[in-house]
Design brief:
This protein has an eight-stranded mixed sheet, with helices on both faces. The longest helix has 16 residues. Helices cover 34% and strands 16% of the residues. The protein is globular, with a radius of gyration of 18 Å. The N and C termini lie far apart (44 Å). By secondary structure, the protein is α/β, with parallel strands linked by helices.
Length: 319
């Protein structure tokens, strides 16, 4: 596997080294080196490129999801999966092996795309246009609403819906589970979600902005973080931690060694508010940002096993 810094321009790689990996979240994680769990067509039924939204600002490329349903066993739950990529890169198609691996073990997966922000802070070869917050999370809520409305058509239970995602998708999954406004726009509430499993995300965006500014400079922090979320005074609105006091959805938060600082901020806040019984944390300190993602589709995956066990325990509870 290539080093994560190999995905960044040279100047970014130098700054990355200064931060000792704390900004690994900026890169599109590379998946490789680990063999994916072999999954046959007999194990999983695949429904690709489903349109989940067709309203104003419809994107034919991004307002789609892929649905992977267990074919030969009962479905324990259905997980909406949100890909990573710094809110500016990536696509659902990159995570198809991951979705197949979960579906082969009894958890259906709706892997979604969403509209992206500009990426030219990383280099002039990347897009100079894109959306800003709250458009990403609006798309996530639209996909969840589609899944809730259409689950039965695919033999799925709309009362056992989980939301999860990696990196930027980890942030978005936590935000959907903690800020009720986005589901409310679709006539839904947080009670329509059983649990959330954010993976290697960021939960305090002011902290994230400061880390980027310190390690890469104000220009990069402005281009990247404010390019995604708008003016700095709006970062709290987009931060899942801002809604911790009223959190009600069970949550398992996973992270790896490179970006663990972002999760520790959240972990500390949960402890301070006495929410440890609702929100739990698991640290895979020997993993990098890239290797943790790769492991979720691998033959042997402690992280996937932990997620599956958590989903089983959540769905076994009485409402």
């Amino acid at each position: 596997m290539m080093a994560l810094t190999d995905t960044l321009p040279a100047a970014f790689a130098r700054a990355f080294s200064v931060l000792k990996g704390r900004v690994a979240w900026l890169a599109i994680a590379l998946v490789g080196a680990m063999a994916a769990l072999p999954v046959s067509a007999d194990d999983v039924s695949e429904h690709l490129d489903i349109i989940y939204y067709e309203g104003e600002d419809f994107s034919d490329a991004k307002h789609r999801l892929d649905l992977f349903v267990p074919a030969d066993q009962p479905t324990v739950a259905t997980m909406l999966w949100i890909h990573g990529g710094a809110w500016a890169f990536g696509d659902r198609k990159n995570d198809r092996d991951l979705a197949r691996a979960f579906a082969a073990e009894g958890v259906a997966v709706a892997s979604m795309s969403y509209r992206l922000s500009r990426g030219d802070w990383r280099g002039e070869e990347f897009s100079s246009s894109g959306v800003q917050h709250p458009e990403h999370i609006k798309d996530v809520a639209r996909a969840f609403a589609w899944l809730h409305a259409n689950a039965a058509s695919y033999g799925l239970d709309d009362s056992n819906l989980i939301v999860s995602g990696f990196s930027a998708g980890g942030h978005l999954s936590a935000l959907l589970a903690m800020d009720e406004r986005y589901l409310a726009a679709h006539g839904l509430s947080l009670s329509d979600m059983r649990a959330a499993i954010p993976v290697a995300g960021g939960y305090d965006l002011e902290d994230y902005y400061r880390a980027i500014a310190e390690g890469m400079g104000e220009d990069t922090a402005t281009g990247h973080v404010l390019g995604v979320f708008g003016p700095r005074e709006g970062l709290a609105d987009a931060s899942p931690m801002s809604y911790l006091e009223h959190a009600s959805i069970p949550m398992l938060v996973l992270t790896e060694g490179q970006t663990a600082d972002y999760t520790r901020v959240f972990d500390d806040a949960v402890a301070e508010t006495g929410k440890q019984g609702l929100i739990s944390f698991s640290y895979y300190n020997d993993d990098t940002h890239a290797s943790l993602l790769a492991s979720l589709s691998a033959v042997d995956s402690p992280a996937r096993d932990e997620m599956l066990a958590y989903i089983a325990s959540i769905t076994a509870r009485d409402d």
